[in-house]
């Protein structure tokens, strides 16, 4: 579409979002019944407390270290601030948003001799800037998005066209990690929503072309197992490496998520994406699904050279939400059945822990008819304030209106406040979800706690189904909403 049309659309979106937001505020401001009101305000309070720590001790830096009242630097690009912009806007935290916007305008510079990870900076920074542009209509965010987007492009100059993992955004050079010429599968296949949207907004096709090329290559590549993909791909040969290991967790997760979401973003016309997604769900059902002995909880395990491992990363808890989104978009009803079952399992990963918070990785009990469903290895007991379960709860509530999903989300929010809140400001990752007496603060607040976890909790508790309607927006893997493209005129 011509740029004027796009801008018009964006402004229209902005106006309706703003209107909804204000009507919601007025409505909630005067409402007598307390349920949803208190919960929305509780999320805002949680955000404000997290922001207090960030503002006082880490302002303009990547991540807050709330216990030592200091900060950590990863890319040196104000990661938490940029990742949080649209959350502040959606939660109606106007003052905080304006202050952060001012920092973006006056301080954020991508002209820096620094190595950034292509995937992480795409989903958090490019994604955050694009969604904030759509919500606000403010050109500042589009200009910044173009700047970072163009600086990431050298990553795609490889012999195979599979991008390198790292880019120096100041020098315009890119390279793989020091120890390998492989890239991670999820990383090269979960940057498409953002670069495709950048092309649409700028009318510059090269952003879209480079990421579509990656999908085309992966679509045709041998080494898949009924739609399941290996975790690495070589940037020289363009072939899968470390074949025979299949997971829906770390290093593969968002490949599956973005097959569906790109198909939705593009108006459900790109058949290869749909075909790969449907095949992958069948592959999951055939090879990775099992039930626990004690309570018959359905979970997604891993396959390593034909050996099944009953291990599931918390990261896999994106899957119920994605399956439900697919079913909502006309995909088979049994996807929704599976979503319902997996949602229960992800809930149990929280509910069965002493702190009410999930471990990073759960092992499931296949054998015993009695005993626990979930076992946690000592090395896997940490919780990083991750979003995947509350993300799925948001989708499940939107599609079923079953209030138990809100209650489960509410329990999680309360556990975060009980075990991860640092009194002086901020929230921290913890070492041990099984020890409520000493959960072991790790002294790090990940940017996705503000970018994703709190945003999804807010949307879960909001009664306003038009606030970022799932028929109008698709959320990137860092919870930044991007518009579903309008269909071309017939
Ligand atoms: C986020 O950066 C994204 O959600 C990504 O897809 C997975 N890891 C973190 C959150 O857990």
From TrEMBL:
Belongs to the glycosyl hydrolase 47 family. GO terms for biological process: carbohydrate metabolic process; ERAD pathway. Disulfide bonds join 317-346. GO terms for cellular component: endoplasmic reticulum membrane. Coiled coil: none annotated. It is a single-pass type II membrane protein. It comes from the Eukaryota. This is alpha-1,2-Mannosidase. The active site is at residues 120, 253, 360, 388. Pfam families: Glyco_hydro_47. It is found in: Endoplasmic reticulum membrane. Its cofactor is Ca(2+). Keywords: Calcium, Disulfide bond, Endoplasmic reticulum, Glycosidase, Hydrolase, Membrane, Metal-binding, Signal-anchor, Transmembrane, Transmembrane helix. Pathway: Protein modification; protein glycosylation. It catalyses: N(4)-(alpha-D-Man-(1->2)-alpha-D-Man-(1->2)-alpha-D-Man-(1->3)-[alpha-D-Man-(1->2)-alpha-D-Man-(1->3)-[alpha-D-Man-(1->2)-alpha-D-Man-(1->6)]-alpha-D-Man-(1->6)]-beta-D-Man-(1->4)-beta-D-GlcNAc-(1->4)-beta-D-GlcNAc)-L-asparaginyl-[protein] (N-glucan mannose isomer 9A1,2,3B1,2,3) + 4 H2O = N(4)-(alpha-D-Man-(1->3)-[alpha-D-Man-(1->3)-[alpha-D-Man-(1->6)]-alpha-D-Man-(1->6)]-beta-D-Man-(1->4)-beta-D-GlcNAc-(1->4)-beta-D-GlcNAc)-L-asparaginyl-[protein] (N-glucan mannose isomer 5A1,2) + 4 beta-D-mannose; N(4)-(alpha-D-Man-(1->2)-alpha-D-Man-(1->2)-alpha-D-Man-(1->3)-[alpha-D-Man-(1->3)-[alpha-D-Man-(1->2)-alpha-D-Man-(1->6)]-alpha-D-Man-(1->6)]-beta-D-Man-(1->4)-beta-D-GlcNAc-(1->4)-beta-D-GlcNAc)-L-asparaginyl-[protein] (N-glucan mannose isomer 8A1,2,3B1,3) + 3 H2O = N(4)-(alpha-D-Man-(1->3)-[alpha-D-Man-(1->3)-[alpha-D-Man-(1->6)]-alpha-D-Man-(1->6)]-beta-D-Man-(1->4)-beta-D-GlcNAc-(1->4)-beta-D-GlcNAc)-L-asparaginyl-[protein] (N-glucan mannose isomer 5A1,2) + 3 beta-D-mannose. Ca(2+) binds at residue 477. Involved in glycoprotein quality control targeting of misfolded glycoproteins for degradation. It primarily trims a single alpha-1,2-linked mannose residue from Man(9)GlcNAc(2) to produce Man(8)GlcNAc(2), but at high enzyme concentrations, as found in the ER quality control compartment (ERQC), it further trims the carbohydrates to Man(5-6)GlcNAc(2). Its EC number is 3.2.1.-. One of its GO terms (molecular function) is calcium ion binding.
């Amino acid at each position: 579409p011509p740029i004027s049309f796009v801008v018009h659309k964006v402004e229209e979106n902005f106006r309706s979002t703003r209107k909804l937001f204000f009507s919601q505020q007025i409505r909630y401001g005067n409402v007598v019944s307390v349920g949803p009101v208190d919960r929305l305000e509780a999320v805002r309070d949680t955000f404000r407390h997290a922001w207090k720590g960030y503002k006082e001790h880490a302002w303009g830096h990547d991540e807050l270290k709330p216990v030592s009242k200091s900060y950590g630097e990863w890319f040196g690009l104000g990661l938490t601030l940029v990742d949080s912009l649209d959350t502040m806007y959606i939660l109606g935290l106007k003052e905080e948003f304006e202050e952060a916007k001012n920092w973006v305008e006056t301080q954020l510079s991508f002209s820096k001799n620094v190595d950034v990870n292509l995937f992480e900076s795409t989903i958090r920074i490019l994604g955050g800037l694009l969604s904030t542009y759509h919500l606000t209509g403010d050109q500042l965010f589009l200009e910044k998005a173009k700047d970072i987007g163009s600086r990431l492009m050298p990553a795609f100059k490889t012999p195979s066209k599979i991008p390198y993992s790292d880019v120096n955004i100041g020098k315009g050079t890119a390279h793989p990690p020091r120890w390998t010429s492989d890239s991670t599968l999820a990383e090269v296949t979960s940057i498409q929503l953002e670069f495709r949207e950048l092309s649409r907004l700028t009318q510059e096709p090269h952003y879209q072309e480079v990421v579509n090329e990656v999908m085309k290559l992966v679509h045709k590549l041998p080494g898949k197992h009924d739609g399941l993909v290996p975790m690495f791909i070589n940037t020289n040969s363009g072939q899968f490496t470390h074949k025979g290991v299949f997971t829906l967790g770390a290093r593969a997760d968002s490949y599956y998520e973005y097959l569906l979401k790109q198909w939705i973003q593009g108006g459900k016309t790109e058949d290869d994406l749909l075909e790969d997604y449907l095949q992958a769900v069948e592959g999951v059902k055939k090879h990775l699904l099992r039930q626990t002995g004690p309570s018959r909880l359905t979970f997604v395990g891993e396959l390593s050279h034909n050996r099944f491992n009953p291990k599931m990363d918390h990261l896999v808890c994106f899957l119920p939400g994605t399956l439900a989104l697919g079913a909502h978009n006309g995909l088979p009803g049994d996807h929704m059945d599976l979503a319902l079952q997996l949602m229960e399992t992800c809930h149990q990963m929280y509910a069965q822990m002493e702190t009410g918070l999930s471990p990073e990785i759960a092992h499931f009990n296949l054998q015993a008819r009695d005993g626990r469903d979930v076992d946690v290895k000592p090395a896997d007991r940490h919780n990083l304030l991750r979003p995947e379960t509350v993300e799925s709860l948001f989708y499940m509530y939107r599609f079923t209106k079953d209030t138990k999903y809100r209650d489960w989300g509410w329990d999680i929010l309360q556990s975060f406040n009980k075990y991860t809140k640092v009194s002086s400001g901020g929230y921290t990752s913890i070492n041990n979800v099984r020890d409520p007496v000493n959960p072991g603060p790790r002294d790090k607040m990940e940017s996705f706690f503000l970018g994703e976890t709190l945003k999804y909790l807010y949307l879960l508790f909001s009664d306003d189904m038009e606030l970022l309607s799932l028929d109008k927006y698709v959320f990137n893997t860092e919870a930044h909403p991007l518009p579903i493209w309008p269909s071309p005129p017939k």
